[in-house]
Design goal:
Elements: H1 14-30, H2 35-45, E1 51-52, H3 54-61, E2 68-71, H4 75-80, E3 87-88, H5 94-97, E4 107-110, H6 115-126, E5 132-135, H7 138-144, E6 149-151, E7 154-156
Parallel strand pairs: 1-5, 2-3, 2-4, 4-5
Antiparallel strand pairs: 6-7
């Protein structure tokens, strides 16, 4: 896949990483920040770890050897919508969910904004998986870029907002559809006919 270097870049001092985590926590508390800022803070927290852009992932999923998408969000979030063909593997049990998968298989971990999937990617690499990347910007970035997800076999522009605070990171029309979405996971509205769907898994 394109979109991230295989070699790790020199990381910032540990104090900078700790400061980035603290800044993210503060931003979450006040609930006013753009996705770009969140993306930067996630990148700082997981500095040098392999990432893949939404554009590169979309291309890879339509290729001859697509990566396995590992969705580490909660089951209620996954039930609302997800990338087509994704494996639901909540963070707490992600290693067990992939116990039978070849350690050489290319994996892409995804969540809402990239924080949980960044942690999952590190855990999977520690478990012996050699090619694990984190989706830059998460699924919020995916839908903000005009791409669709899947729900019940149909394309949808909606994504679970995780919380009222995180929902501010989602642009319309995904934001317009989130009104009925709660932590209980209501069924999202479907995309309009002709909307581009996420590439199929082969």
């Amino acid at each position: 896949m394109h979109g991230s270097a295989d070699k790790k870049a020199p990381g910032p001092p540990r104090k900078s990483r700790a400061g980035g985590a603290l800044a993210l926590a503060l931003l979450l508390a006040v609930g006013v920040w753009p996705l770009g800022v969140t993306r930067g803070l996630v990148a700082l927290r997981f500095w040098g770890d392999p990432r893949v852009s939404a554009e590169a992932l979309a291309e890879a999923l339509s290729g001859a050897r697509p990566p396995m998408v590992v969705d580490v969000r909660g089951a209620d979030e996954f039930a609302v919508s997800h990338l087509r063909g994704a494996l639901s593997a909540p963070l707490d049990g992600v290693e067990a969910a992939l116990a039978g998968v070849d350690r050489g298989r290319a994996l892409v971990a995804v969540c809402s904004v990239g924080y949980r999937s960044g942690a999952a990617a590190r855990r999977l690499r520690a478990a012996g998986f050699r090619d694990v990347r984190n989706l830059d910007g998460g699924l919020f970035g995916w839908v903000n870029g005009g791409r669709t997800l899947e729900s019940g076999g149909a394309a949808t522009r909606a994504v679970h907002p995780y919380s009222a605070l995180w929902a501010t990171l989602i642009r319309a029309p995904a934001r317009a559809e989130r009104g009925a979405l709660t932590r209980g996971g209501a069924r999202p509205a479907r995309a309009r006919p002709g909307a581009a769907a996420a590439p199929p898994r082969r």
